[in-house]
Amino acid sequence: MGGSYLRVSSPPSCIYRFLPQRFWSRGARCPVSTVTPGVGGGRPGVPSQGLTPPRHAPARAPHLAQCLRYSRVLRVVLSPMETAPDAPQESGGAQALLSELEARVQDVVRASSWWERHGVDCAILALSLLSLLPGFLCLRSENVLVFVLGITILGVCHYTLTVKGSHLATHGALTESKRWSKIWALFFVEVCTAFPAEYAKYGHVKIHHGYTNVLGLGDSSTWRLPCLNRYIYMFLAPLLIPIITPVVAVARLSNMELRVALRTLGLISLGLYSHYWLLLNVSGFKSPSSALACMLVTRSLLAHPFLHVNVFQHIGLPMFSRDKKPRRIHMMSLGVLNLPRLPVLDWAFGHSIISCHVEHHFFPRLSDNMCLKVKPVVSQFLQEKQLPYNEDTYLARFRLFLNQYEEFMVQAPPITELVGLQ
């Protein structure tokens, strides 16, 4: 949105045609104002912008209607020379761009070996599984440094399996076999993460990816907790994620088929009890309370960056209404942001969540390693076509959210409309 908090990598001169500026007037009925380039106060190359009152949402989306009722609508109108003659040509132009990008990426994928497509990420997950035993054994030591090393190993391995593994398995990016994809999803999502695989796939793949930054659907609103102030949310709330996750999972069981619910409950119980049993019998913990405390510590080791990353990469970027959402290529280039390479988070969460999130949203079935490999192709293409390629640092986003918490996490976001895109 505003240039004060969104950094675009190597922006072309006309990039700002896609980036609406915030307008904070809360007038009840504000007329649409336009600025014609080169006339009056307008500047050449700057899109006309105006504010229109929010429209009523369809009855099928009550949550969206509530958001629209309190949201401002930001309408971005491109200069006349950028406006397509008619709507079908706009759709065709956007589809042609997306098809060209897909063709370039497919060329890279076809030229890649199985090791590059799947092997690297499978090896990381296998190494994490093998590292669990040394981690549990380190907890037997009375040496503080060795004990802390064990906590660190178990914590990093836990997030590698639950975040990276679950994410790749949910998208079917670990293998090309549908049968094995389902097996890996059950293992990583239900056994390791303690969450129903069916809901993970529906909420993440169908809703978040299908309606990225669409208000009331894929707008990451599940991460908003307006009842918490900024310091509790940013610093204390992440510690509750290991407790909230299985509680939410159990609550969802009532909405599932009996057979699926029993399977999910059994796999979640197996994962939690296995962790508890290993702490008692391998690590040598003497009491159940100490074992449970260790479980909480290891499962919340990277909870802070996990929560932060989930809000940094979408919230604060343009949001769209369901009936006025742009074409996919514009939706993804505007509404997704990459963080820089961060070794620990890249390992534990995966490139597709950290440094290649834009690429992941364009091509969700690619593995982390392949997202990293096609990143130069995607970034070069978007910049060639004068489309946004959003990047920012973790620290910059953290400061931004801490300073503008009310705007991003409490208030309803303004709705962005793009008019005249080719």
TrEMBL record:
Family matches, as Pfam families: FA_desaturase
GO biological process: fatty acid biosynthetic process
One GO CC term on file: membrane
Region annotation (Disordered) ranges: 35-55
Keywords noted in UniProt: Fatty acid biosynthesis, Fatty acid metabolism, Lipid biosynthesis, Lipid metabolism, Membrane, Transmembrane, Transmembrane helix
Fatty acid desaturase domain boundaries: 145-391
InterPro entries listed in its UniProt record: FA_desaturase_dom (IPR005804), Fatty_acid_desaturase (IPR012171)
TM helices/strands, residue ranges: 143-162, 183-200, 231-253, 260-278
Full protein name: Fatty acid desaturase 6
Gene behind the chain: FADS6
